[in-house]
Specification:
The complex is a heterodimer of chains A (about 260) and B (about 300). With about 260 residues, chain A is an alpha/beta fold. Chain A has ten helices and ten strands. Chain A has two domains: about 160 residues, 3-Layer(aba) Sandwich (Rossmann fold); about 80 residues, P-loop containing nucleotide triphosphate hydrolases (Rossmann fold, 3-Layer(aba) Sandwich), CATH 3.40.50. The chains are: A alpha/beta (about 260), B mainly alpha (about 300). Chains A and B meet through helix 2, helix 3, helix 4 and helix 5 of A and helix 1, helix 7, helix 8 and helix 9 of B.
Chain lengths: ~260, ~300
């Protein structure tokens, strides 16, 4: 079953065609890596899928439903969560609040329950708090619940952002360069975490990454982009040998 | 009711404070003037709390808060005068209606202007504040009762200690309950990072509008209590300078701190009125030297407000 299908997606900014008719699909349970040189349009594809940009043309199907023109806040409810290339945490809020807020987006009680403290307020809150604690434990952030998010070291902030995305209980998770700014040892840890996360949460994952070691290691399929177009698609091994990919990364061989 | 049981730790001291104030006022230990500014300080706290919801919690910089305070004041005064309301019981629906009207106006102008960010929003709210001031100045053209630039006179005096105190305490509790619910959490998310808020599924425009309308509702209630405390309204009481007063209280008390707003409101009213008593009449203008100095000192000592030490 196709969890996500992108069809002929196009997006231009002024004179620049950032995404130029790209199509690919992601099977349920699969991990798909999107790679490509800087400026290839990878993040634009993410922003299109998650509703932050409106496509000029094309469709994005999530389990068959077209989500291409929905506002971004609708997507987590459907089951799509994302992280950002340059971390976007709620910096002045605590680790616990960062995760709790994502938990409570799905929690249903209205303003009057909140004001008059009706039963559904307590039920929803305590359930969400319990789940948040479990997630914090899973991501090795125990003991840091009450620290503000921006006081954490970089690697932990990355983990927290991932935890917050998973608090939405998504079906599809889009991860934008989780390895950015990490050293090889941290990358190793991240690979481990990503694999565990996938197993634990039964996720379909789409990942943008520059660190080849990371992306080749965890992806079932790789989509290679250059200048807004898809230039190759296949298993990591196929892609590594693809002529066009080598050209995009290393430049053409001189005649 | 669960609401009151949950809040028993606040209500018990509040009742104690009320009894002490009641005794002080009952035995005429202080002048009527002090009594009046005590009630006024509750109104200031309530209205500032509204701005704290808008600015301190949700990060929407508003320079027009006094306009909503004024809308509440004028609507309540018009209603109670034209309906002949004189008792507290009759006044309560008027009070509620004035708050709701101010909230609705906030909601209506919030739809277009809350899309703006930071300084643009400041200019838009400033513009709205000026607009309201101009309308109030010319209000006698709509209805003679409103008085226009001559001021609205002859409002019945209904606000007493019980009303001002318990309405303020009740609304502080309501606000606290909202702040400590998912809505308060989402407001703070929006303030921290709007894009990330959308990414976790928060409808940011709705949350901003909700915080803005609720803050304006509180200002409207504050205005209605004010109108029936001083029995006289003048457009100049609701201009940009008044908005700045509320802004100062929010910043002095600390952005996103209810307790801070309460302290700052008391200190603000106490300081201005206290200096009026402490200084000889011919030096009264020196207040506007002392107050800025006090603010500069405070901001150097506690840049994040009275309550919080760090960011």
């Amino acid at each position: 079953m196709k969890a996500l299908a992108v069809e002929n997606l196009e997006k231009g900014f002024g004179g620049v065609q950032a995404v130029d008719g790209i199509s690919f699909s992601v099977e349920e349970g699969e991990t798909v890596g999107i790679i490509g040189p800087n400026g290839a349009g990878k993040t634009t594809v993410f922003n299109l899928i998650t509703g932050f940009y409106r496509p000029d043309r094309g469709n994005i199907l999530f389990y068959g439903k077209n989500i291409a023109y929905l506002p971004p806040h609708r997507l987590p409810r459907l089951g799509i969560a994302r992280t950002f290339q340059n971390l976007r945490l709620f910096g002045k809020m605590t680790v616990f609040e960062n995760i709790l807020s994502a938990m409570l987006v799905q929690g249903r009680y209205n303003l009057f329950s909140a004001i008059f403290r009706w039963t559904d307020y307590f039920v929803t809150e305590s359930k969400a708090e319990e789940k948040a604690r479990k997630l914090i434990e899973f991501f090795n952030l125990s003991g840091k619940e009450d620290q503000s998010a921006d006081s954490l070291p970089y690697g932990e902030q990355r983990r927290l952002e991932l935890a917050r995305a998973l608090a939405l209980e998504p079906k599809v998770l889009l991860v934008d360069e989780p390895g950015a700014g990490m050293n090889p040892i941290e990358i190793q840890g991240l690979v481990q975490t990503m694999k565990e996360v996938k197993k634990q949460f039964l996720l379909t994952v789409v990942i943008i990454e520059h660190q080849m070691g990371l992306v080749m290691n965890i992806s079932d399929k790789i989509v290679v982009m250059d200048f807004g177009e898809k230039i190759a698609e296949g298993t990591p091994d196929q892609v590594k040998k693809d002529r066009k990919v080598i050209e995009a990364y290393l430049g053409e061989e001189p005649l | 009711m669960k609401f009151f049981w949950e809040a028993r730790k606040v209500i018990l001291p509040a009742v104690l404070v009320y009894l002490v104030l009641k005794a002080i006022f009952g035995f005429h230990l202080v002048s009527g003037y002090i009594e009046q500014i005590t009630l006024f300080s509750f109104i200031v706290i309530l209205t500032s709390l509204g701005l704290n919801v808008i600015y301190g919690y949700t990060g929407q910089f508003s320079l027009g808060h006094a306009a909503f305070y004024g809308i509440g004041a004028y609507i309540s005064a018009y209603l109670s005068k034209s309906l002949g309301v004189e008792s507290i019981l009759g006044f309560i629906p008027v009070l509620f209606l004035s708050g709701v009207s101010a909230g609705l106006v906030g909601c209506l102008i919030g739809v277009p202007i809350l899309k703006l960010r930071d300084d643009f929003l400041a200019i838009a709210t400033l513009g709205f504040g000026t607009l309201v001031r101009v309308i109030l100045d010319n209000s006698d053209r709509f209805s003679e009762i409103l008085g226009g630039s001559r001021g609205f006179v002859g409002i019945p005096r209904i606000t007493n200690l019980e009303l001002a105190f318990f309405v303020t305490v009740f609304l502080i509790l309501v606000t606290r309950n909202i702040i400590f619910s998912r809505y308060g959490l989402f407001w703070r998310c929006v303030k921290n990072d709007e894009l990330a808020s959308q990414a976790i599924g928060i409808n940011t425009s709705r949350m901003k509008l909700m915080a803005f309308s609720y803050g304006c509702f509180l200002a409207g209630i504050g205005g209605a209590l004010y109108a029936h405390l001083y029995t006289f309204l003048h457009p100049s009481n609701f201009d940009i300078l008044k908005s700045i007063d509320f802004l100062i209280i929010v910043i002095v008390g600390g952005m996103g701190s209810i307790v801070g707003t309460i302290y700052a409101g008391l200190i603000w009213v106490g300081f201005i009125e206290g200096l009026r008593i402490a200084l000889p009449a011919d030096m009264l203008d020196l207040r506007w030297v002392f107050i800025p100095l006090f603010l500069i000192g405070l901001m150097m000592w506690r840049p994040y407000g009275l309550i919080r030490k760090g960011g």
